[in-house]
Design goal:
single chain; 204 residues; alpha+beta; Ribosomal Protein S5, domain 2; 5-stranded antiparallel beta sheet; 4-stranded antiparallel beta sheet; 5 helices; 11 strands; elongated; Impact; Ribosomal_Su5_D2-typ_SF; YigZ family protein
Length: 204
């Protein structure tokens, strides 16, 4: 059966600090849904930590189609961004940005030391974050004449469907959110009702 839940952060995590041979690594985890949010958060952190040496990060967006990016921000290849992304994967979270800000302490850590430090800071940031499981929902638009309101409401109650918004006039329109696993059954239920139209929200 297709998986219809995902895990993400409820709110941004508290700042954590990991120290290694005089270098300081500040870790942050944020819930995000767009790349624009990622850019804004990175800009904010760069202003806060304007004397830092590196702002390395990884993010993952999406529930069914996954999009991710990892950035070493001047550290040796794959020594920062990918270890951070590895923690996003091991916590099994999505729609999330993890940033680790480094202040160089004068002692080089070597690639192995860097990988370990960035991984640890990312792990600590995700450990203090509140993670919750959510359902992947499909949104439907149901259109019908007012006289058919009872038929529509009966299905909504029977199937315990979440009503997102409603427009009640002579011709009515409801937006419904339905768990992915139940979407086909709900679509069929409305589809069989005379004079009631249902379509997926992104279809025009």
């Amino acid at each position: 059966m297709e998986k219809d839940t995902y895990k993400t952060l409820v709110t941004a995590s508290e700042e954590i600090l990991f120290k290694e041979k005089n270098s300081k690594f500040y870790g942050y985890a944020y819930p995000v849904t767009t790349e624009d949010e990622v850019k804004e958060l990175l800009e904010k952190l760069k202003k806060e930590h304007y004397t830092a040496r590196h702002w390395c990060y990884a993010f993952q967006l999406g529930t069914q189609q996954i999009y991710f990016r990892a950035n070493d921000d001047g550290e040796p290849n794959n020594s920062a961004g990918m270890p951070i992304y590895g923690q996003i994967q091991s916590f099994d979270v999505t729609n999330v940005l993890v940033v680790v800000v480094r202040y160089f302490g004068g002692i080089k850590l070597g690639v192995g030391g860097l990988v370990q430090a960035y991984k640890t800071a990312a792990q600590m940031a995700l450990e203090v974050a509140e993670i919750e499981e959510r359902t992947i929902d499909v949104h439907f638009i149901v259109s019908f004449d007012y006289k058919n309101m009872n038929k529509v409401m009966r299905i909504i109650k029977e199937k315990n469907i979440q009503l997102i918004r409603q427009k009640m006039e002579l011709s009515c329109e409801f937006e419904l959110a339905v768990r992915l696993q139940e979407a086909a059954a709900v679509h069929d239920a409305f589809d069989q009702v005379y004079e009631v139209e249902i379509r997926y929200k992104d279809e025009k």
